[in-house]
Design brief:
This protein is α/β, with parallel strands linked by helices. Helices cover about 45% and strands about 15% of the residues. The protein folds into 3 domains: about 130 residues, Response regulator (Rossmann fold); about 170 residues, P-loop containing nucleotide triphosphate hydrolases (Rossmann fold), CATH 3.40.50; about 80 residues, Helicase, Ruva Protein, domain 3 (Orthogonal Bundle), CATH 1.10.8. The strands form 6 sheets. It has a 5-stranded parallel beta sheet, sandwiched between helices. Bound molecules: adenosine-5'-triphosphate and magnesium ion.
């Protein structure tokens, strides 16, 4: 799958030995003899795997572990140590080395180690691909209405500061899209974005989805499961429809947020985590607090920044921009070439009340594009409800 291996070793015959073994297996192998050359090659070639000797003419090999620490595409570094230097090997692993091999290199072990590194690289590429596809299909259109401009500014600030956010708004107003916008615009954009819909998951399962469990925690728990809290570590955890979360899990969540740590179901070990929590609700949490259905302390924890998405009927001036956005999106998706909306049709779109908000608008545009003549959306192409409102005006 196009893996580049960089060997860093001052002995040219050692480099050649590795190259002669790996090249026929399909790897691109590049060899350098100094740390300085290694740095240049790292920048230029973006290798996936680095085979790194410890003692190099111009410095100490493992220094590369520090230097590459924050690279988003940090290579898998396999350290080549002298036989018996366990201490250094342990130190290197702590500093993020992928593996270590002892000299003289056994080709079988080298192959095993590189195979495992390739699995990691493949997973990372897949993940990036998934993120990229999500990224391109999901755009947040703020529009010009002052309410939305305010939401956007606050969202941007909350994203950079990684403070908890509570997003409220009717169905279809863009709570999911806004949560992803916050992820993409914060320092954690290259870290996981994990969304969980609390309403779609049975209460009993929700706890173990969030916090995971240990083997033997309950019947059927055959082996340890990592909860989404752990999976989201370093990134953003989006708790959708948080109003559906039962009170006991709310208590456990609050504790996890406050202590930045939690225990798996049936576990005793504290697991430390660092997640940026974004929650959303389309029910009124304040009245739920009064009914005793939602914890007040959790509510205040979550709404450090609270973003209320206005219904579409209150920001009708944004409809033309949204319509344009959806037309471009569906042109690409459906391979069409729709260019405009007739004036009466746009008028109708702007006077309808949109109970399903932006989601309903998006569906209406997709439908209209399928019904229209291929270039212009006309009144007759719109859904019946929209036409009816226009006729009654
Ligand atoms: N600001 C926006 N920019 C672009 N598209 C948007 C925006 N807001 C919403 N959409 C579109 O509307 C659809 C619904 O949005 P979203 O799923 O975020 O709504 P929601 O508030 O989470 O609704 P629900 O409460 O039903 O879960 C999205 O798939 C997206 O296509
Ligand atoms: Mg949603």
């Amino acid at each position: 799958m196009g893996i580049t291996v960089l060997t860093v070793d001052d002995e040219s015959h050692a480099r050649q030995y590795i190259s002669e073994f790996l090249t026929p297996l399909g790897y691109e192998v590049v060899g350098v003899g100094t740390l300085g050359e290694a740095r240049t090659a790292l920048n230029r070639l973006d290798p996936d795997v680095v085979l790194l000797d410890v003692n190099l003419p111009d410095g100490y090999g493992p220094n590369l572990l520090y230097e590459t620490r924050d690279l988003p595409n940090r290579p898998m570094i396999i350290l080549i140590t002298a036989h018996g230097d366990i201490e250094m090997a342990v130190e290197a692993m702590k500093n993020g080395a992928f593996d270590f091999l002892t000299k003289p290199i056994q080709l079988k072990q080298l192959k095993q180690s590189i195979d495992r590194a390739c699995e990691m690289v493949a997973m990372r590429r897949e993940l990036w691909h998934l993120r990229e596809t999500q990224r391109s299909s999901l755009q947040f259109i703020a529009g010009k209405s002052p309410e939305m401009q305010k939401v956007l500014t606050y969202a941007q600030r909350a994203a950079s500061a990684c403070v908890p956010v509570l997003i409220t708004g009717e169905t279809g107003t863009g709570k999911d899209v806004l949560a992803q916008f916050i992820h993409r615009n914060g320092p954690r954009a290259n870290k996981p974005y994990i969304a969980i819909n609390c309403a779609a998951i049975q209460n009993t399962v929700l706890e173990s989805e969030l916090f995971g469990y240990e083997a033997g925690a309950f019947t059927g728990a055959e082996r340890r499961k990592h909860g989404l809290m752990e999976v989201a570590d370093g990134g953003v955890l989006f708790l959708d429809e948080i109003s559906s979360m039962p009170l006991d899990i709310q208590a456990k969540l609050l504790r996890a947020i406050e202590e930045k740590a939690f225990r798996r179901v049936g576990g005793t070990n504290l697991i430390h985590i660092d997640v940026h929590i974004v929650a959303a609700s389309n029910r009124n949490l304040k009245s739920m607090i009064q009914e005793g259905e939602f914890r007040q302390d959790l509510y205040y924890r979550l709404k450090v920044v609270d973003l209320d998405l206005p219904p579409l009927r209150d920001r009708k001036e944004d409809i033309p921009e949204l319509v344009g956005f959806f037309i471009r999106q569906y042109n690409a998706k459906l391979g069409m070439n729709v260019e405009e909306v007739s004036q009466p049709a746009m008028q109708a779109l702007m006077s309808y009340r949109w109970p399903g908000n932006i989601r309903e608008l998006s569906n209406a545009i997709e439908r209209a594009m399928l019904f229209c003549d291929g270039q212009k959306i006309d009144m007759a192409d719109l859904p019946a409800d929209v036409i009816k409102t226009a006729q009654n005006e």
